[in-house]
Amino acid sequence: MSEWTPTTCMRCAVGCGHLQQGYTNNYGLDTVRGDASHPVNRGLACQRGVSETADPDGDWLTRPLVREDGTLVPTSWETAIGTVVSHIEDALAETRDGVAVLGSGQQTNEAAYALGKLARGGFGTRYYDANTTLCMASAVTAYYQAFGSDAPPPTYEDIPDAETHVIWGANPAVAHPVMYRWIADSASDDDSELIVVDPVESETVDDADLHAQVDPGTDLAFARAVLAQTVADDAVDREFVAEATTGFEATVDSLPSVREAAETAGVSVETVERVAEAMTDSALVYWGMGVNQSVQGTATSRALIDLCLATGNLRPGSGPFSLTGQANSMGTRVCSSKGTWPGQRGFTDPEERQFIADEWEIPRSRLPDDPGPGPVGIVDAVADGPPEVCWTVATNPVAGMPDASEVRSALDDAFLVAQDAFRTETVELADVVLPAATWGESEGTVTNMERRISRVRAATETSPKIKQDLDIIVAIGAAIDGELFPRPALSPESVFDELRALTAGTPADLSGISYDRLEAERAVRWPAPSPEAEGGYRYVDNDGWSFPTPSGRARFSTGAHDGLAEPTDDEFPLTLTTGRQADAYNTGVRSRGTGTDDPPMARIHPETTLEYIESFDRGKTVVSSRRGSVTIAVNPDDGVPKGMVWLPIHHPAVNALTLPVVDPESDEPNLKQCAVDVRAPQPSNPLVHEGQPTVDGEPAPTDD
């Protein structure tokens, strides 16, 4: 075996330090364990992060592939890159928006930066985004609107000091096990408590002192009820509100009655009172996809921030803490020119645009005028034009995006380039496949959910037929624009140095973080404007409160519950909601094995299963929405309310059902609630509905 190599786990955004050993005479990792010297986890590591790093159960890509006569066949790197470049150049000759690019929170900071530089500064396309918009955009938008900057104010160091932990629309016991251990340990103290807001019972609910079981899609109503109760109880921190915020009176004027909002959310007034009382203590409010993935995701995130502002919970040991899913979601936001220029420079600000154009040595007119329509809008544009080429990097939109059958159709009609480490549903549609290095094989940095940057390192070599994400991006970029990427290969360190220089003086200042510093300290939290500086709790210091907003104050909001994105009716009388399972992440490509066609396991209340018993066949049925039908296996579970179907979001078939309507402020889709029905499979076509368009619960006719 090789020497121990320190790195960072890439499964989720906790950012745990790992130590890994590769084989001496073979490719691959032999052993992975937690790194006791890493400041994030101090040696803790979850088994799923270890196993998915050391021994992922996916179907590895081992060489470039190109489609010939409808079949993917092996080819050389020269042919693969040449084919991609030729099609991109042809598309750009028609319009700079002729190429769509979908990146990922699975990329390093360096690869994400290079991809954004190529998409925005090389192509000039507005059709560029990342799958992080599918999970974090609403929280990000809310942070910008409230504070003028993205990313949580608190850090992991605040968790032990909190007296109340409110986990809203998330299941960190499954999604973030190491972080959840800190939360559970803190909440277990006699003077602390854990409150979970979730429509279903979960592993996190098992430890809760209170489970507020709201109806799906009503989180905003419940949050406003709690704030209304806080005002009624005269529990507002008036001194903090007066000193550090603006807009509070308008928020109060917009609040519903407690009883009305509680009824909308499907909870008792007593539950509202209990949560409001708990917020008077030092409270951390964590939220996840159950809040974000909604047409009201931004408004609900703002409402949770409002709760913290009103109760003075915006100081160490408290605050609003969005839980990031993918390992480098934050790095993708800060680095990649997706929604802002690097360092959170305003995308449409003329001075910032000129600064970026000057640094990249391109005409400012090449930069797109706006950040684009988000992933759902990008796929719509691929279907209707102008993009003729779509390039996906470390993402699987055919499985991960809502209304997946339409996504499949749109990408199948485009010239599709899939860059990935494993075979996925998207790879199977591709015209060119670019095999990329993965965890344990890659060099660079990532940024965790509390703003800490740390190194990822390779502990094993790869086959010459596998390339690093960064090398692939630069090879394509250099062939298209030799001035943007003047050299055919760039070191990750040189790219990081270019990136951090661009962030100097910004709210997300990385300029004081170097590879040498990361070598010595393992991880450094931004903002870090000097080699000695490291960010802590944000927006407060010895001089008081200061926010990067025009007024220098945090801003309250006035959002109100506005109904469900897709209510139930006589045709679709059940409500679908989705969530994570312990063994499935990132559409499950590293954990579900090869060739599996097992149906997703649905949690349904026993009384609901009895009501629909004629629709079941040996424990299986077909769930149908207005968009598709999926065969499911059924697990009767009274932890799910009557009338609800719970399905795992990372199963590749589930998003054939989900709704592509998006939050108008963040472009994040409403993946958490839609109307469905369960219907018996037809004998002539038993249990073959996975991922297909549907008519009356049966697969729609095709031209095949």
From TrEMBL:
Keyword Magnesium in record: no
GO molecular function terms listed in the Swiss-Prot or TrEMBL record: 4 iron, 4 sulfur cluster binding; metal ion binding; molybdopterin cofactor binding; oxidoreductase activity
PROSITE patterns xrefs: 4FE4S_MOW_BIS_MGD
Ranges for region Disordered: 678-704
Cellular component aspect of the GO annotation: membrane
InterPro entries documented for this protein: Asp_de-COase-like_dom_sf, MoPterin_dinucl-bd_dom, Mopterin_OxRdtase, Mopterin_OxRdtase_4Fe-4S_dom, Nitr_red_NasA, Prok_molybdopt-oxidoreductase
Keyword Cytoplasm: no
Domain annotation 4Fe-4S Mo/W bis-MGD-type: ranges: 2-60
Protein name as catalogued: Molybdopterin oxidoreductase
Keywords of this entry: 4Fe-4S, Iron, Iron-sulfur, Metal-binding, Oxidoreductase
Top-level taxon in the UniProt lineage: Archaea
